[in-house]
Write a structure and sequence with these properties.
Blueprint (H helix, E strand, L loop, with lengths): L20 E9 L5 E12 L2 H14 L2 H13 L11 E3 L6 E6 L6 E8 L21 H9 L5 H15 L7
Antiparallel strand pairs: 1-2, 1-5, 3-4, 4-5
Length: 174
């Protein structure tokens, strides 16, 4: 977004130059998982109105505010995220066009978030079953490998959900 202003709130420094739209906010948080959204501490920037609407619509589908606040609260409560440590976290979605990143910046009370719409890329090639890092000894991994043909979207989505839920691994496409 080199031609647009930076986000006034949130993690503006993480938004790449080729993003089409971005939304950011500063949440009030506590280490025990309490998350409070302050409406006047958020911002959205965009290249076109269509980009703005696409970002907002996709966010509403893949990571509505309540789910995002819940995810941030869980990271804090589990002490994976700390209000006293500056560390960035990618909040995973199943939409490859949406990226979400959060960081408390060690502020002891705030969490800064940025979500952005990435440019459309050429269609991905079907995945090769042998290129997926299957987890040895996991019956569900073996089941996925045996039941599904490569290249099917439902297969890719099912595998991604399984890896995220069962193995805390995010599959990143090339």
């Amino acid at each position: 977004m080199s031609t647009l202003e930076k986000l006034r709130y949130g993690l503006s420094g993480v938004v790449p130059d080729d993003a089409r739209a971005a939304w950011g906010c500063r949440l009030i948080v506590t280490q025990d998982g309490h998350v409070d959204y302050v409406w006047d501490r958020s911002d959205i920037i965009y290249a076109t109105e269509a980009d703005r609407m696409e970002l907002l619509n996709r966010l509403e589908i893949v990571m509505p505010p309540a789910r995002l606040w819940e995810a941030i609260g869980a990271l804090l409560k589990s002490e994976v995220m700390s209000t006293r440590v500056n560390r960035e976290f990618d909040i995973q979605t199943l939409d490859e066009r949406i990226q979400i990143r959060a960081n408390t910046n060690g502020s002891c009370g705030y969490c800064y978030i940025a979500a952005w719409l990435t440019p459309q890329r050429a269609a991905a090639q079907p995945a090769d079953l042998d290129s997926i890092p299957w987890v040895q000894g996991c019956a569900r991994c073996e089941g996925f490998k045996a039941q599904h043909e490569p290249g099917l979207f439902t297969w890719v989505e099912a595998v991604a959900k399984h890896f995220a839920a069962e193995h805390a691994i995010t599959l990143v496409g090339g």
